[in-house]
Design brief:
Layout (H helix, E strand, L loop, with lengths): L22 H9 L3 H7 L3 H34 L13 E9 L2 E10 L5 H11 L10 E6 L3 E4 L7 H7 L5 H12 L11 E5 L10 E6 L2 E6 L11 E4 L10 E9 L1 H8 L11 H8 L3 H9 L7 E9 L5
Helix pairs in contact: 8-9
Length: 317
């Protein structure tokens, strides 16, 4: 006959509860929890509601400064900015005539901000007028992107390349003005109809390091980048293009001829295939064929050329 209150002595039997021992007694003797701890572990719905309310109040108190800070930021943005883009007044006018496959499509008239970006305006004016010994005449638009068109500038070798380097307003001057725009000292917003000089290649990020195998050893090298801009390439935006603010110095805006820009955007281009997994792998392993292919992306199949360009001598802008 089994005793009603048998104490478990062997390790193998300690997990077998007595059939007649009360459940409450088993919980206390097996777990060994103190009565105070057991009371603290019991949470009623009322206590849980109070705890949730306390947590909500604490969270609200913590988030209040953040909300006030956001309001302060909004107030700061709404304040009038001394470098407001709407206050800029063009000081010069330039024009470029464009043709597609030899067929003229119209003239674009550009207003230049000589007071805000004197170096960029002086450089563009010297090239568009031919005073630098070089000109945009008979030079192509090399990229037609969804939001803008890009002119190739003076990319030839020899005398033209030397004159482009020695033109008024060096590339370093343009970069300094572009950095002022990054700091907010001058307006450098690429809105629809903006005209800007390329100081960095907008399609290329900063150089990245990669592993290459040379003579049986792994070495870390920077990605090979083609020759950067020389301060003669320019872009004309068709829509707001904030992505260009990291690579373009805005020097003016289109006053007339946005219809010409729209006709240029309708030209068929080489399809951008940078999202292809094969292209990505080729870029990672440093395949030069990927670099060559990337240069051809978004290039127009038709020949989009500046047939004539210059400054407009006018006192009324």
């Amino acid at each position: 006959m089994m005793l009603p209150y048998v104490k478990l002595l062997t390790p193998s039997a300690k997990f077998l509860p007595s059939p007649v021992e009360p459940l409450q007694h088993i919980r206390r003797t097996t777990v060994g929890a103190s009565p105070s701890l057991e009371r603290n572990c019991k949470l009623s719905r009322r206590n849980l509601s109070k705890s949730s309310l306390l947590l909500l109040l604490t969270t609200q108190t913590t988030l209040t400064p953040l909300l006030d800070f956001s309001n302060a930021q909004a107030d700061t943005i709404d304040n009038p900015n001394p470098t407001n883009c709407e206050n800029r007044i063009p000081t010069k006018k330039a024009f470029i005539d464009v043709s597609i496959d030899g067929e003229p499509i119209g003239r674009i008239i550009i207003g230049l901000y000589g007071d805000d970006v004197p170096a960029g305006t002086a450089r563009f004016s010297s090239i568009v007028s031919g005073k630098a010994g070089i000109s945009y005449r008979r030079k192509d638009f090399v990229k037609i992107m969804p939001g803008y068109v890009q002119h190739g500038g003076i990319r030839s070798y020899g005398v033209d390349a030397e004159r482009a380097t020695a033109a008024v307003g060096t590339l370093q001057n343009l970069i300094e003005e572009w950095e002022r725009g990054k700091r907010g000292e001058i307006c450098n917003v690429n809105k629809a109809g903006s005209v800007g000089i390329v100081v960095r290649d907008p399609s290329k990020p900063p150089p990245k390091t990669k592993l290459v195998a040379r003579n049986g050893k792994l070495q870390v090298e920077e990605e090979v980048i083609v020759v950067g801009p020389n301060g003669t390439e320019f872009v004309i935006t068709a829509v707001d293009s904030p992505e260009l603010e990291d690579s373009v110095l805005v020097i003016g805006k289109v006053l007339e001829g946005m219809g010409v820009v729209e006709k240029m955007r309708e030209v068929k281009t080489v399809r951008d295939n940078t999202s292809s997994p094969y292209f990505r792998v080729a870029k990672v392993i440093g395949d030069k064929r990927a670099v060559v292919a990337e240069r051809g992306f978004n290039r127009p199949y038709s020949k989009v050329v500046v047939t004539n360009c210059g400054l407009i001598e006018s006192q009324t802008l």
